[in-house]
Amino acid sequence: MHRGKGMKFVGDSRVPATRKPNIPKDYSEYPGKTEAFWPNFLLKEWMVGAVFLIGFLCLTVAHPSPLERIADPTDTSYIPLPDWYFLFLYQLLKYSYASGPYTVVGAIIIPGLAFGALLLAPFLDRGPERRPSKRPVAVGMMLLTLAAIIFLTWESVVTHDWEAAAEQGKIRAEVEIDKNAEGYKILEANTCLTCHGENLQGGPAAPSLVGTGLSPEEIADIAKNGKGGMPAGIFKGTDEELKKLAEFVAGLKAE
């Protein structure tokens, strides 16, 4: 073996001989395929986000949120309704197997199993395929979940009494109720407050007694003979008590 024979020197082109400043590459040769993150790509993201933000703000100004009256913890007749993205759980709790003594099943067990299965889907189907037909387990679980959510949300919307919901949450003019008045005590003695509320603001099953615009005679006739969903015979007092009740309700004027 001669000196210098059999020895080779290999250079690695990935290691630059001199350090260069961190300047973005020129992507003009590849238009539309790739670009520098800063500032090109990030600027476009900011512009798109700004357009959507301005559009969302315009919608909130043109269509403000439908606020309801101040929450009253003493109003047991009020039926709360969750936001649209929780309507499927709200509907699930209406069924006999997920409500009453089985509330834990509908509120914890069934949703826990559903969301747990979604979390485990990537571990149950670990194949490299990206086609839906090649991943039946993950795709099947996802389609089943979407179908259940859509069906329960739709059922919740079509079965809910939206007129009663709007009535119970309507903002009404305030009026000072004298709860020591004899007419109020007569209302309380005849269980009128159960439906009309402690502040006579009304509820899903009964209208407000404030600012009815009715005469004492009309109010007395309704209290005695009923009207709409209110049956006759609820009032059990005397004619004198009926008169005081009617005068009290007729005198409730909205401020």
Q: How would you describe this protein?
A:
The protein has 255 residues and is mostly helical. Among the domains are: 85 residues, no CATH class; 69 residues, Cytochrome Bc1 Complex, Chain D, domain 2 (Orthogonal Bundle), CATH 1.10.760. Helices cover 47% and strands 0% of the residues. The protein contains nine helices and no strands. Helix 8 packs across helix 9. The radius of gyration is 35 Å and the shape is elongated. Keywords: Electron transport, Heme, Iron, Membrane, Metal-binding, Transmembrane, Transmembrane helix, Transport. One of its GO terms (cellular component) is membrane. It is found in: Membrane.
Attribute tags:
255 residues, Cytochrome Bc1 Complex, Chain D, domain 2, mainly alpha, single chain
Q: End-to-end span in angstroms? A: 113 Å
Q: List the total number of helices.
A: 9
Multimer state = single chain
From the spread of the alpha carbons, the general shape counts as elongated
Tell me how many strands there are.
Answer: 0
Q: Major sheet, described briefly? A: none
- Runs in which pLDDT lies below 50 for 5 or more consecutive residues are none
Strand/helix succession: HHHHHHHHH
Structural class: mainly alpha
User: Share of helix among residues?
Assistant: 40-55%
As a whole number of angstroms, the C-alpha radius of gyration is 35 Å
Mean pLDDT: 79
Strand % is under 5%
